[in-house]
Design brief:
Layout (H helix, E strand, L loop, with lengths): L1 H34 L7 H16 L5 E6 L2 H4 L9 E2 L18 E10 L1 H5 L6 E8 L10 E7 L13 H12 L7 E5 L5 H10 L2 E5 L3 H7 L9 E7 H14 L2 E7 L2 H4 L8 H10 L8 E3 H4 L5 E7 L10 E3 L2 E10 L4 E10 L10
Parallel strand pairs: 1-3, 6-7, 6-8
Antiparallel strand pairs: 1-2, 3-4, 4-11, 5-8, 5-9, 9-10, 11-13, 12-13, 13-14
Helix pairs in contact: 1-2, 7-8
Length: about 350
């Protein structure tokens, strides 16, 4: 028992101290690469270069990592696909410099360019994101959709995804000591949300519609001063797990429920039939397709880290700013182990700069 506790302690320290520094550079490199395509109308290219940069930096980390959430089936991606192994210790010659007895296996969820359309059209809110935990610590979400509810820490365990929006807004109002009319709810601007938007407005709250990027919106709920008090609606399931990882570390509320019926979303869902999707979930070991997951279930690892770097300016972070000879980035790293949220401001020198801009 003592030996196992020591190993658990070593694992937690490795994730926190070593990977905590490394993953900052991983998201920074992805953001810088993608930002070079900001406003050029080429969302696929903006995503591809982010993937390449993220993978290249990841493969320089002394670890054996496994992608549990990646570019996904929809993209048929050649890199950072689900199941791909990354890190120095996955190389064929790894036995020469990686001690199997000391090797810590890591599960990784990535979205190298969260908001490809935002980058392509020069809009706010795009970022490079990832979450990591020890093996088995992140829910391997299928490439389905997910009904989501995110809220600040005071509402944790009080609001419920199975309640109506009206009920949750009343609860949220009480938890935050704010009038319903003062609440702002972020909802993806999609036809499937027409009734939800109407209900929120009828209840008296205000709606902020976004075209993409609900990870940023979910995390913003946990920070006072963002003027975002909840995220409601249906978005991609993989991004739901990444959001859950961040909100678990921050103590915020997050719940998700998989959506397997194509009729609910009417677009983009893998699988042409409800029955086929249910069968696929069963093959993945998900027997209760209607189960509601909380943040601790979606990101269940002993140690969970979340990292993001702004590509374009957003509520939480500045976007990449280029100057003659370099670039400046702003990143956010959140840890369940140290219970910290660090904003990291970095200057990257590509060549000898003529001017270093302070702000």
């Amino acid at each position: 028992m003592k030996r196992r506790n020591i190993k658990q302690h070593q694992r937690a320290e490795f994730v926190e101290n070593t990977l905590g520094l490394e993953i900052i550079e991983v998201v920074e490199q992805a953001a810088i690469a993608s930002s070079r395509w900001m406003g050029k109308g080429e969302k696929n290219t903006a995503d591809e270069v982010a993937v390449e940069a993220m993978r290249e930096r990841m493969n320089k980390i002394h670890m054996r990592g496994r992608i549990v959430i990646g570019e996904g089936e929809r993209d048929e991606a050649p890199m950072l696909y689900i199941g791909e192994e990354v890190g120095i210790c996955t190389r064929e010659d790894a036995k020469d410099f990686c001690n199997p007895d000391e090797l810590i296996e890591i599960d990784i969820a990535v979205d190298p360019c969260e908001g490809t359309n935002l980058v392509a059209y020069g809009q706010n809110g795009a970022m490079a994101v990832l979450a990591i935990s020890e093996k088995g610590g992140l829910f391997a979400a299928p490439d389905f959709y997910m009904k989501k509810l995110a809220a600040p820490a005071p509402a944790r365990g009080h609001v419920d995804i199975n309640k109506t929006a009206t009920q949750n807004l009343k609860i949220l109002s009480e938890c935050l000591d704010r009038a319903v009319e003062e609440l702002v709810v972020v909802v993806m601007d999609r036809p499937r949300h027409k009734e939800l938007i109407e209900e929120i407005r009828t209840a008296g709250a205000r709606v902020r519609l976004i075209s993409d990027g609900d990870v940023s919106a979910a995390i913003s709920c946990a920070f006072a001063g963002t003027n975002i008090h909840a995220l409601m609606g249906i978005g991609a399931a993989p991004e739901g797990v990444i959001s859950a990882a961040a909100l678990r570390c921050l103590g915020g509320h997050f719940q998700g429920q998989l959506i397997y019926d194509p009729e609910v979303v009417k677009t983009g869902l893998i699988g042409e039939s409800r029955e086929g999707n249910l069968a696929r979930l069963k093959e993945m070991g998900i027997t209760d397709a209607d189960r509601t997951y909380n943040a601790e279930e979606l990101a269940s690892g002993q140690t969970v880290l979340f990292a993001a770097c702004g590509i374009t300016p957003g509520v939480l972070m500045e976007g990449v700013r280029f100057f003659n000879g370099g670039a400046r980035t702003q990143s956010l790293v959140i840890s369940s182990q140290s219970q910290t949220a660090r904003f990291v401001d970095t200057i990257h020198l590509f060549e000898e700069p003529k001017v270093l801009q302070l702000r």
